[in-house]
Each structure stands twice: as structure tokens, then as C-alpha cells.
Design goal:
- This protein is mainly alpha-helical.
- The protein has one domain (2-491).
- It is built from 24 helices and five strands.
- Helix 2 crosses helix 12 (233-252), helix 9 (189-202) packs antiparallel against helix 17 (334-345) and helix 11 crosses helix 12.
- The longest helix has 27 residues, at 420-446.
- The termini are far apart.
Length: 493
């Protein structure tokens, strides 16, 4: 059976070292330039030693086959256009999140590290955010100047996207098909859009629906993979690469030595995404020797990174938008909106669950997929952040696992359009694919807004991230640290 053949994938010897280095380099920059030398320099040395040891122990004895020239060219070209259309570097119109991205890049280039702010009310603060995506291009910008930033940002993003595309392409024996299925896998966002703009099918006015969904943390959908990179490359890239590394280590090699180190290296990129990455070690509890987690790489390298990042993020300003969805629901609206959100957003996942229960198409992916499905169902019940940031970030690894399950399902010998469940599943995937297929071209043809730093200064009068305000929410508070925190007093330079 195809699922049995696909499960024999061996460790990807080309992907693993490049992905590990990609995730680790920002940590070295942070430790060397942001953390006090008596902590940062020894920690950076431990990260280098840990990376070298991890690369040595993960040399594959039987590496999985690489890609031929045609398939490799396809992967690199698709990654190039995907990165370009997503707005990295600003060569095509960018989305509104780039107000924040471009302000962060400006502050990292022009302010001393660590970046400190004087707030409009006169108080002090510092930049406290997932900086893994930003530090490498920003360091280049400090050396080469602002003019180099578009190219640097594009190349850095492209490197991460191309690495992950390569990994997906080697996931099965059909590289192009696997990659296209993965990239077009999406929730039925069109249904959620209809829900928002119909006023729950005429029962409420549209503005009230939008306000209620936003208050409950359900306004934004589970992003498709293009939208994720288009809006949040800082979270998307670490979810992609971190999940792939965990899959290689824990699911293929069944070796947890270095897993804590890899997870700790992902924290600087996106702490909330790291919560979702824990799905893989949880699913692999019976698959790996748990004593191997107490390896020197995990205890020394992972331990020191975990301590540094824990202190750094503990100093973050408290997010006031949080709570269970029923506590945020004044009149029981969540009893309507949560089921509708699940029905529209997770319909392909739930159909895949039913297919696997009947036909067993997922093979050894089943434990990962089942845990991911439960995680995606539970996340909307708890809100953290104005836009439901916990769900948006921690859900991405689970969506990746669901997409890998879709690859296995559609390439299984049991797949048949004569079976109703498969017809429904394929139809659901086609409806979901409309959004990631159409969104890039819609953006190119209709988006005339400029979210560059220069335009933000001119139109909003905002010169630093700390000045960025919104009538409904102080967005800047999501990126600031408390001056009385242990990070400000003991950790940062």
C-alpha cells in the first residue's frame, strides 16, 4: 500500500543541518548582542557546541533520496514566487501586518541593542517579542544600510520557505503532487467569510457579528499556509521548520536527544508556536526512549536557552485579552459561534478523521493527526491576545500535520471517488483551495496600500513601534517588556 511505502521515509540528511542552522543563528545573534556578556557569551558557546553535537548524532546512515534537477528546480521556483507574492521585501504590495514588521526592522537597524523605548507617557520599556525572524536581516541592515533591507528580508524569508518546501517535496515519492497538496490545503475560509458578512444568515447585523467574533477570539480563521507567510512569516517559518525537525528526530529516527535543544531554539522565534510544536513529542511518548531526553545536548544547550528565553519573555507586558470563550460571552453567543467556527474551519480535518476511522489511510501518521485534531478543536475555547494570538500561532503545527495527513489520504491506494467520504473530502479541499489560490492575485490587482516605514511615518506619524496605537487596542503593548522585570534588570545589556 502507498501509505506503507510512504512511512518508510528516512531522515533527510540535507534538510536537517540547514534547518537547524537557520533556526539557531538568530539565537546566537541575540545572545551575543542583547544579553549581558557574562551570560550571553557562555550561552552562545553552548548553543554552538549543542548544534555541532546534534548535527553529528543526526547524520543519517541511510538518507532519504534527494530530488532530481527538475523537481529541485520546481521546488526552488515555487518557493521564489511564493515568497515574492507573500510580500517579503516589499517587491509586491504587502499586507497590514507589515506596519509592525517594518517598524520592528527600522528600530532594530537604527536603535542600540537591546532596543529601548521612551513611551508617550514618559515611562520606559524595551522590545520584547519573538525576534528570530527579524535579527538576521536587521543585522545585515545595520551593516549595509536601509537600502539593502528589501533584498535581505526577501533572501532570508526565501531561504526558510525553500528549505521547508524541499522537506515536503521529499515527504513522499511524488514531490510535485505532495507539495501542491500541502500548499493548497486550507480550511473552508469562504464559509467563515460568508458567516461574517451575512450576519449569521440574517439573524444579526454584520457589524455585530464582527464585534462578537473579535471579542470571542474567533474573528480570524485558521490561516491557510499562504496567508500565514503573507501576514506572519515570523510565526509561520518556525512552525514549518520546527515541526519538520521534530518529525525527523522523534517520528523517523525515534531519537529525542537534542529535541529540547531544538524546541528551545524555536522560542526566540515564537513562544506560542512552540506550544503547538509540543504535539509531536506528546504523540511520540511511547515511540521514543524517554530517558534519552536527558542527553547533554538537551540538558546543557537546551537548558541554558530555555532559561534565557524564559526570563526574556517573562518580562513581557501582560496581555489583557485572555480567558475562556464562555467567560467572554455575555449572552451565551459562544454556543453559536464556536460550533460554526469549527464547522467552517475544520471541516476538511474532521472529514479526514472520518475517512481514517473507516479506511485507515494515515498509517503511522495517525497518532500525530488525532492529537492535532483534538488540539485544533480545543484552541478556540481559550483566547489570548486581541486577535486570538494563541489559536493563530499554536494551531499552525497541528494544521501542518493535518495537511500531511491529506497528502497521505489523496495518494493512498484506497482513495476512490466512488466512495462518498472521499468525494466530500475532495470537494471540501477544493473549496478551501480557492482562498490560497486567489488571494495572491487579488492582492496584486486590488491592494494599493503602502505599509512601508516611510509611508507609516507620513500617514500615521508613527516613527517607532512603541508609538503604534489603534483605536480599539494598544497593539504596541503586545511587543513591549516591563522595565521592572528580571529581564530588564538582570538579563539584557
Amino acid at each position: 500500500m502507498e501509505t506503507a511505502k510512504a512511512s518508510q521515509t528516512r531522515v533527510n540528511g540535507r534538510f536537517f543541518p540547514l534547518a537547524l542552522v537557520y533556526l539557531a543563528i538568530p539565537n546566537l545573534i541575540f545572545l551575543a548582542a542583547w544579553v549581558r556578556p557574562w551570560i550571553g557569551i557562555p550561552a552562545a558557546i553552548m548553543v554552538v557546541i549543542g548544534s555541532v553535537l546534534l548535527l553529528r548524532q543526526n547524520r543519517p546512515g541511510e538518507p532519504c533520496p534527494g530530488l532530481g534537477r527538475i523537481n529541485l528546480g520546481f521546488v526552488l521556483a515555487l518557493a521564489f514566487y511564493w515568497t515574492l507574492l507573500a510580500g517579503a521585501g516589499g517587491f509586491v504590495p504587502q499586507e497590514i501586518d507589515y506596519i509592525k514588521h517594518n517598524l520592528i526592522f527600522h528600530d532594530l537597524i537604527h536603535f542600540a541593542w537591546p532596543v529601548n523605548y521612551t513611551l508617550p507617557d514618559g515611562n520606559k520599556s524595551y522590545l520584547c517579542y519573538g525576534l528570530g525572524y527579524y535579527l538576521v536581516p536587521a543585522l545585515g541592515g545595520r551593516i549595509l544600510g536601509d537600502a539593502a533591507m528589501p533584498a535581505l528580508t526577501f533572501l532570508w524569508t526565501y531561504a526558510g520557505v525553500a528549505l521547508f518546501f524541499y522537506w515536503v517535496a521529499t515527504f513522499t515519492r511524488t514531490p510535485k503532487t505532495s507539495l501542491l497538496i500541502f500548499l493548497l490545503f486550507a480550511a473552508t475560509n469562504l464559509g467563515l467569510l460568508a458567516l461574517k458578512h451575512s450576519g449569521v444568515f440574517g439573524l444579526m447585523d454584520t457589524a455585530q457579528v464582527g464585534a462578537t467574533l473579535s471579542h470571542l477570539g474567533l474573528y480570524h480563521s485558521y490561516y491557510d499556509f499562504f496567508t500565514k507567510i503573507q501576514f506572519q512569516p515570523q510565526h509561520g517559518l518556525v512552525a514549518w521548520l520546527g515541526l519538520a525537525l521534530f518529525y525527523e528526530m522523534l517520528w523517523i529516527k525515534k531519537d529525542p536527544r537534542g529535541a529540547v535543544f531544538v524546541w528551545s531554539a524555536c522560542l526566540l522565534w515564537s513562544p506560542m508556536t512552540c506550544l503547538g510544536l509540543l504535539l509531536v513529542p506528546l504523540a511520540a511518548l511511547r515511540r521514543v526512549p524517554w530517558r534519552a531526553y536527558f542527553s547533554p545536548v538537551n540538558l546543557a544547550g537546551g537548558g541554558i536557552l530555555l532559561a534565557v528565553m524564559g526570563i526574556y519573555f517573562q518580562g513581557h507586558v501582560a496581555l489583557v485579552d485572555r480567558g475562556f470563550v464562555w467567560n467572554l460571552s455575555s449572552g451565551g453567543e459562544w454556543l453559536v459561534f464556536y460550533p460554526l467556527f469549527v464547522a467552517f474551519e475544520l471541516s476538511p480535518v474532521l472529514l479526514l478523521f472520518l475517512i481514517d476511522q473507516r479506511y485507515r489511510v494515515l498509517g503511522e501518521l495517525r497518532p500525530l493527526f488525532l492529537l492535532a485534531t483534538g488540539w485544533l478543536l480545543l484552541l478556540p475555547l481559550w483566547k489570548i491576545g486581541y486577535c486570538g494570538d494563541l489559536r493563530l500561532q499554536a494551531g499552525t503545527p497541528a494544521l501542518i500535520l493535518a495537511a500531511l495527513g491529506a497528502i497521505r489520504c489523496l495518494q493512498s491506494e484506497l482513495f476512490s471517488l466512488k466512495r462518498p467520504l472521499f468525494i466530500l473530502f475532495l470537494g471540501c479541499l477544493l473549496v478551501g483551495a480557492v482562498y490560497p489560490i486567489g488571494r495572491p492575485w487579488w492582492n496584486l490587482t486590488t491592494n494599493r496600500k503602502d505599509y512601508s516605514y516611510a509611508c507609516t511615518v507620513q500617514t500615521l506619524g508613527v516613527r517607532t513601534l512603541a508609538e503604534y496605537q489603534d483605536p480599539n487596542c494598544n497593539f504596541a503593548a503586545q511587543y513591549l517588556g516591563r522595565p521592572d522585570s528580571a529581564a530588564a534588570r538582570r538579563l539584557l545589556r
